[in-house]
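Handout, section 4.2: multi-component inputs.
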Amino acid sequence: MGTDDMDTKSLSSSLHRTSPYKVGVPPKQKLWKEFSSTLKETFFSDDPLRSFKDQSRSRKLVLGIQAVFPILEWARGYNLAKFKGDLIAGLTIASLCIPQDIGYAKLANLAPQYGLYSSFVPPLIYAFMGSSRDIAIGPVAVVSLLLGTMLQNEIDPITNAHDYLRLAFTATLFAGITQATLGILRLGFLIDFLSHAAIVGFMGGAAITIALQQLKGFLGIKKFTKNSDIISVMQSVFSSAHHGWNWQTIVIGATFLVFLLVAKHIGKKNKKYFWVAAIAPLISVILSTFFVYITRADEKGVQIVKHIEKGINSPSLDQIYFSGDYLLKGAKIGIVAGMVALTEAVAIGRTFAAMKDYQIDGNKEMVALGVMNIAGSMTSCYIATGSFSRSAVNFMAGCQTAVSNIVMSIVVLLTLLFITPLFEYTPNAILSSIIISAVISLIDYDAAILIWKIDKFDFVACMGAFFGVVFGSVEIGLLVAVSISFAKLLLQVTRPRTALLGKIPRTNVYRNILQYPEATKVPGVLIIRVDSAIYFSNSNYIRERLLRWLTDEDEQLKAAGLPEIQFLTVEMSPVTDIDTSGIHALEELYKSLQKRSLVLANPGPVVMDKLYASKLTNLIGEDKIFLTVADAIQTCSPKFAEDV
Amino acid sequence: MGTDDMDTKSLSSSLHRTSPYKVGVPPKQKLWKEFSSTLKETFFSDDPLRSFKDQSRSRKLVLGIQAVFPILEWARGYNLAKFKGDLIAGLTIASLCIPQDIGYAKLANLAPQYGLYSSFVPPLIYAFMGSSRDIAIGPVAVVSLLLGTMLQNEIDPITNAHDYLRLAFTATLFAGITQATLGILRLGFLIDFLSHAAIVGFMGGAAITIALQQLKGFLGIKKFTKNSDIISVMQSVFSSAHHGWNWQTIVIGATFLVFLLVAKHIGKKNKKYFWVAAIAPLISVILSTFFVYITRADEKGVQIVKHIEKGINSPSLDQIYFSGDYLLKGAKIGIVAGMVALTEAVAIGRTFAAMKDYQIDGNKEMVALGVMNIAGSMTSCYIATGSFSRSAVNFMAGCQTAVSNIVMSIVVLLTLLFITPLFEYTPNAILSSIIISAVISLIDYDAAILIWKIDKFDFVACMGAFFGVVFGSVEIGLLVAVSISFAKLLLQVTRPRTALLGKIPRTNVYRNILQYPEATKVPGVLIIRVDSAIYFSNSNYIRERLLRWLTDEDEQLKAAGLPEIQFLTVEMSPVTDIDTSGIHALEELYKSLQKRSLVLANPGPVVMDKLYASKLTNLIGEDKIFLTVADAIQTCSPKFAEDV
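Output:
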């Protein structure tokens, strides 16, 4: 039955005096057009090829190359003013990143120089391929912890350091491959499945875990647990209380920790003094190194860095596992760590892009990050991504483009070539203090309180992730976060809301009786509104729920001695779509009703099409399908419609 | 800010003359009440404890026992009339099931008696614990095929028959455990995730696979491929064409296949002759056995059953693998086969319950099926479930209760004890013909055509499952079916619809301009309706999509030389809920708009609550939130609102 028939035949019988407009039916889209537009919305929803429209062939080629290497585009508009901003920002984040890199490499159970390597090559590559102007690239605390935890489950980093390093490079390669693949296949929306609330909980838990692990360096303890959960860590701390705490270390660590926290506080209070917080770590390193050198505190039990390999990154392609057991293990670790790294970087990119009002293409960013990590794995780097704290400093220091990353990269290069011997006497305690002060800002309890106020289910996800990390491990916390996020989606698609409607007196409006106490139920008619599309995931539930509404109503009416329901009216305006299982469920509903009548009100155009295609309209009867609930009541219970 | 403030402060400013009703706010539900009602809707949506309300303690105990063993409930109302119906139905399905059981056991690569065992013990247990009055229990074609395929991937049934049998029992035990666990934990809704369309395709593909595999027995081929995909099978058939086809076998097989198909056709054409189709298989077996015995056709190359072990089931608890490699393999196979078996049984139960207008509890059914299979695994049975064809025959033969299953079970018992030697000369060809004629009804092309008409995506799922089974294997087809079903859900939660609205002239109604050509866009205002709740899974997409609507509109206006958009109005009536990621997205949207204004129209009560809780109302401005789109336009573009 064509749509024209529908316009005239079935609807003319339900024309209502006050709504002279028939329900419109959009022209039937050709199958190909419908398919291609769905494909476009799913994968190309941000219309990345917009600028390619109506251009000449050579221009398209140029645009294409510029899309892969955005630097070619913005480099042309580069001038001295921008360079000034980038230079200052680059120097600032370099001073922040050098001590952090050494510390984060320890989190990942790697020798300190690998952290510096990962601040040299990856930012350079990102500057050529990335689109964010404010992100600062390098190793980050949470990913370093995640990597360190997962890798040491496979290989012991102390007894088998060489294999451990090889596995780290393998994981980095696969992280890069995962990121680039997601970006190329435009599957970036998969990252969205880790909800904001879960990330807040996960980051907070990871921050606490990292801070607790720093107690080893902070207190000068030699024997420490490998586990990351809070119980094991506290056990290690207290069991070594008698003989393991080195008071000199604690003094150094505590002093500078206070210094760092005060500097951070000054930076927060007055935005103009952000640079105080930014250079404080480097100042601490310099002062403490000098102090230890002068007092020879390392002979009194203060543990020092001792040795950082001089020189730039060596190629490491030959060190990657391309076969054997470790290949699979490295791949698994790389995929997980890569996706967590992506989440951070994409979140940072989006935040700053919104603040400065420019667009970034999430999928393109992923390709840039992926290539950066693939190249990193071949040049002795481990997984690098965008860092919250460094990007914020970058932003406030006035960065203009990704050149700030190039500046930082060059400073790190100079450090690697010339300055590394100076770190020999740097106490581990100072690195621990720097890490503690860095991760404290990851604990966002304001966000957690807001989540509690807004959405309790989200809060459960947040707390689940938090406690999963703190009491279990980073992987368990991640698993809990993803599971709870999926459970919420499951709930959304399998248990949609339904509402019983009543008539608001002296109007033609029908509303939820729970929301509007004045709405009156219509005698003999049960009006239920279904608040979702009817798909296979919820069609059985909807059918059973509708029947249960009916049974409940019957019981109440029987107890009150009133006549039972004759008409079940389903208000279908929120039902945006229906599939074969949904049609099936409506059929079964109709058959279950037997003596009573099934009435449909306000079906959308897509739904009407499918009702006709499935011949359900013949089964139910075209005279039982109305444009509005008011029309339906007019026909089912005319006396009521007039009286009230 | 409390809901009372909201009632008076912000809404009074947007009271519209023709709608004197403020948007109602439901009373804030206590957290525990909200949580427990969500729990109830999710797991106990069919209110199974309804009858337990307001009952005495002893009565509750009785009801509880009756819930586990429904036989105690309906046995009291049993009378001679019902027994008459059940007797006839039981005898009819017994005559159908005996030849089918022998054939299906071969599908599962098991000796024929195991099929008969599985029609003896499981139906008895089901009769005590199940709730469906029409289902007929026993081995079925698709599950037998699935089991046979998956088991022979692990162990060769010819060279290592004993271990193969043990693995079959292990798989059956785990199938039963899976089914019972899903039922007890009320996770039955997980079965819904295999959509109706996917099942149609899967069953059709399995039917073709089974029919093709029968060519071995039908053509009398000795050497046959183990693979089930159509290419391998056709290769086997044609490569043995010269020397492997036994013409006597083909004659016997073809003759009786024609007979069976004709009998089936008679049964379909005239519902009164259904018994013709029902007893045709048994008649064929008797006639062909007699024929082979008389002519000693087995000496001329016609393969016969040869031997069916006499006697009833032996206990098999000691044969199940409780440790080692095979335990895990058996568990994996059992879980998959168990869930497929569940899908069939639940679908059958629901269909007949709807036709005869009684209720069955899906989760209770699963427990009954699970216990039945657990017991079966300990009594030499393999996975049994509800059979479409036998249940239909049961229904048409006039079954009244599950006693028909008990009658069938007793007939099978008698067969096992006394009649099995008579099957010695039954040709394999006749079993093949019976199976072919049985599975042909699984190919439901009417349903497939209907699916094509109704929902193209569903049709893709259907065809994907079909071709996956035919050209790959049963497991691949199942995987394809589940993946496509999940992809559809993914699409639903990540890419909701949005629509641009325009004003219908001379009314206050705003509708989709694609659907209503007469709707006029409002100059300077862009009205977009978002057709879904805004969760973390789609919040980024919605934000980007809204911005893209804006950009597209700007381009069009610029090209036409008209002034650009000043107000972005988001019509939020379909937005049933919003979470923290959604709030975040609205914030970022507001920031991206900068000079332009963000206006929200018609937010539901849940959404309003969260907008207040997150202080978004302060950010956007309470004067920018309206009850209806008409109110919003009144304020944003008053001139237009009056003119048109």
